[in-house]
């Protein structure tokens, strides 16, 4: 239970920072920010796990400075992919 709450908090923080850093306007409100941040935390954590261990595991980054940076990068990747998807359908 604590892990889920930690991922939501980390996702909210990472999503907000990623939206502030990412150039251009991104639509969506606080819910979209949190969702993209949580997805980014999983994407970033999984890619970090792949790069460090050589195995792909669905994990989230931990509650640390390094984990926050990985989650922010993952959230930026999620925002980029989301903008590609919404740009093509709009």
Oligomeric status = single chain
Number of domains: 1
String of helices and strands: HHH
- The separation of the N and C termini measures 38 Å
Uncertain regions: pLDDT < 50 for 5+ in a row? none
Percent in helix: over 70%
The class by helix and strand makeup works out as mainly alpha
Biggest pleated-sheet summary: none
Report strand %. under 5%
Can you describe this structure?
Helices cover 77% and strands 0% of the residues. It has helices at residues 2-21, 30-53, 65-89. The chain has three helices and no strands. The chain is globular, with a radius of gyration of 13 Å. The chain has 90 residues and is mainly alpha-helical. The chain has one domain (2-89). Helix 1 crosses helix 2, helix 1 packs across helix 3 (65-89) and helix 2 crosses helix 3. The termini are far apart.
